[in-house]
Design a protein that fits this description.
The chain is of the alpha/beta class. It has helices at residues 2-34, 43-52, 67-74, 80-89, 122-127, 156-167, 176-182; strands at residues 40-41, 56-62, 90-96, 103-105, 108-110, 112-115, 118-121, 136-140, 146-151. It folds into two domains: 1-34; 38-182, Glutaredoxin. It is built from seven helices and nine strands. A hairpin with a 2-residue loop joins β6 and β7. The longest helix is centred in the N-terminal third of the chain and has 33 residues, at 2-34. The radius of gyration is 23 Å and the shape is globular.
Length: 187
């Protein structure tokens, strides 16, 4: 009878250890998974968060039909170094250039404008000074003021330089071409 108690004790102990190990590996997998994607947020969320924890803002302007936008999502925006850098130094927002809902930005309401069978949203037009080429990136400072809009597809190597240039405030003192020419990858 004594051996039987020990046997049940060991079975219960091993079961408890197994369940604990499964829980820990599940939590680790979730934690690793979270750092493998860019933490895209909505504009209104960033408006609130930036007041509590100031960071620069990166807006990726895209359209659902845009091939280069999809390519950039599958390549550049999947690079682990790019993901980590954006998540650490920026609030990231995806902005559909054909967004149908109104958006409040800097106290002004921007709307969708119907045009022919489609249309466009006013906010990307304003942020990119009318030069809306897709995809585009828009960099804002910690007060949500425009730093720079950059149209066109960017590969991971070129985006790395841009991300550092704006995050480190180098844009305030160093011309872009000088910075780009002297830049050494930190990834």
């Amino acid at each position: 009878m004594n051996n039987q108690k020990w046997f049940y004790f060991l079975v219960i102990l091993l079961l408890g250890i197994s369940i604990g190990a499964c829980n820990n590996s599940s939590k680790k997998a979730q934690s690793n998974q979270q750092s493998t994607i860019i933490k895209w947020q909505e504009l209104d969320e960033v408006n609130e968060q930036i007041k509590k924890q100031p960071k620069k803002v990166l807006i990726k302007v895209y359209a659902d039909w845009c091939g280069p936008c999809k390519l950039m999502d599958r390549t550049t925006m999947q690079d682990p170094h790019i993901i980590d850098y954006i998540n650490e130094h920026y609030y990231a927002i995806r902005l559909n250039s054909e967004e149908r809902s109104s958006l409040d930005f800097q106290g002004e309401v921007f709307k969708f404008i119907s045009f022919g069978s489609g249309g466009y949203h006013e906010l990307p037009v304003a942020l990119l000074n009318g030069d809306v080429r897709l995809p585009s990136l828009v960099f804002l400072d910690e007060e949500m003021q425009l730093i720079q809009g950059i149209p066109g597809y960017q590969d991971a190597k070129s985006l790395e330089v841009m991300l550092n240039y704006f995050a480190e405030d180098a844009y305030q003192e160093v011309p872009w071409t000088t910075y780009k020419d002297k830049y050494e990858s930190s990834f």
